[in-house]
Design brief:
By secondary structure, this protein is an alpha/beta fold. Helix content is 42%, strand content 9%. The strands form 2 sheets. Strands 7-6-5-9-8 form a 5-stranded mixed β-sheet. A 4-stranded parallel β-sheet has the order 1-2-3-4, with helices on one face. Helix 1 runs parallel beside helix 2. The protein starts with a helix and ends with a helix.
Length: 383
Amino acid sequence: MKDTTQAREAVRRLKEQGADFVKVYSGLSRGTYFAVLDEARRLGLPVAGHIPPGVRLAEAADSGQRCVEHLDGLLRACSEREEELRTGELELLEAALRRDTSARVAQRRRALQALGGSSFSEERARQLIGRLVRNQTWQDPTLVIGRLYATLDDTTVLRDARLRYMPAFLRPFWDLEKDPRTRDRRSPEDLGHARRALQKHLELVGAMHRAGVPLLAGTDALSPYCFPGFSLHDELALLVQAGLSPLEALQCATLKPARFLGVEQRFGTIQEDKVADLVLLDASPLEDIRNTTRIAAVVLAGRFYDRAALDRMLAEVEAAAPGRSDDRGAYRSHPSGSSAVAPRRTSKCRALPLSEPDSPTRPMAAPGSTSWFTRTRISERWA
């Protein structure tokens, strides 16, 4: 968008098309960003997304951005030299738009990362967190992305068993040696910056949670080695690593997304008259968050899928994955076929308030529609 007029027109078009919210990206200028927020507020549309370098995170929170993705702008805002970092990141953004991947740009990025790390201020972080709490500015950390950049030297990711479920057309975009997002970030200096940033992000996520900043569990699925569905389990484990309890981490993928999207009356907890989509586990995730991967069965849209049925679905997806690189249609249909989906039923059970959204910022994906609890809890409470 070239100017504020185009920005406002774009928001109005989204409203006319029935959008649930507006997502902003880093490429917006300061003027167009605030025009989007103002027009969205006038039309009653929430705004979520990134924080452009020309905008301070504190300003975005004060101006009403409802949710921030990827902890964007957080470390910059906690720096005593925020203005220098903002100016530098604007230069990097302009270089990216020019497709400039020269060594000069890489060195400039490393210098800014070093400056951000050395100028971190605990007091600025404390003040910023207080501001996020007052504005109730949600954060969707997507820590799995930071972990990828911190482990680009770990070749085991290239042999991740979950790759067999990914469509062929994605694989060229996940080539770490060719993807411009990763190919120039594998030096010891880059990895050191990425690891320090991940550790600081983990600390800040824990501090924000303790202070009352609302968190969501998201993954930025389809970014390199970010697997739809699977990576949510990884994100939950990282939230626990950041200091949340397993129950609190689970609520970031269940109760809180339902609350964020305004659908708490139908989703987010296991209660009578709420949608009864459930994930049944073989072990309690409250004892070990990694137990969310021990899925015994799924109840979805009134139909029960046991482990054998789920394995058949995965096998079908795996069989389709090696297809032509342009064959995207194979992933549009439900693996079980539409005739297998029965009408939704409401639940008559009471259990722990745990469930999973497809993505906390994609309302059309029936967020908060799946609830976690273990077989033992079914026998105890589903009567």
